[in-house]
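ARCHIVE CARD
Drawer: 12
Card no.: 0347
Subject: one protein chain, sequence and derived structure
Cross-reference: see card 0346
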Amino acid sequence: MSAEKPLEGKVALVTGASRGIGLAIARTLAGMGAKLGLCARDAKRLDGVAGELKRSGATAEAIPTDITRPSEIASLVEKIERSLGPIEILINNAGIGYFAPVQDASEANWDAVLDTNLKAVFLLSRAVVPGMIRRGSGHIVNIASLAGKNAMAGGSIYCASKWGLLGLTACMAEDLRSHGIRVAAICPGSVATDFSPHTGRDMSKMLQPEDVAHAVETILTQAPQSFISEVVLRPTQKP
């Protein structure tokens, strides 16, 4: 391990790694020396990301996965640990949005958002935590949102998923800190990606995916006697 490569040799799993915030995080962790397990549902885009990282000298494994399916999660973790080694860093980034008045939402909308944004974080964390406990160390970083703190019209289902994610993160941190596992949440405001429409907003003033990746880097390079439990991230100018 070196100052230039503080994560050299460590295995990191990044969900939703084919675009946006997940892609920026994967690039940052690759630059820090991590060996990367990458998952997303879009196999073609994911393969392109893995190819890019490999050309830069990184070790990367692309495994298309639907993280709402427990059987696919088990297969994902098994494949990564077989090919790269024990997962020491988990970045729960994958998420979907649904924005409409509550009276227009369906049960299917609720299930899709909550299964992806909240239940999958629980399932993936549960899959990797036993190994982290055995080794006495690990990092779990959950990408939440300011929508987990602030109500907004049309955001009932999405906000519910992110409020729940913050509660899950805080409780996981308490459960796992005595095992040497640090759990944190990052709550960005609107990020300039194709995740949701930004009509009429100046995207140059919005947070960029790299800003969230920088917050991940900060969390993962904390001194061992402390941990950052939550980062709230806002742009310097309102877009």
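Annotation on reverse: Helices lie at 20-31, 43-55, 70-83, 107-135, 156-176, 209-220. The chain has a mean pLDDT of 95.
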